[in-house]
Amino acid sequence: MSHKNQAAKQVLNWTASTELPTVDSVKEYDVVSAEQIDYLGEGLYKINSNNDAVPAVADGNPVAQNKAKTKYVINIKKRSEVVKR
User: What is the pLDDT of residue 85?
Assistant: First the structure.
């Protein structure tokens, strides 16, 4: 299967414990919205206390896909591996 076919078939399902009143960080006032906004705002990498970029949602470092290093693949952690803050 080519990378194009793989990318076209990937799906991210996101669940919440109840209906979200908002995902607008300016308007959020409830715990559920705040939690989901926090998850949505999580990047692939975060900065640790030593000011180093470390994987957050990413599963490791980017892997170059060509000699020119213009294309990279970043694997995403499985849902069970993403640590809640």
Answer: 46
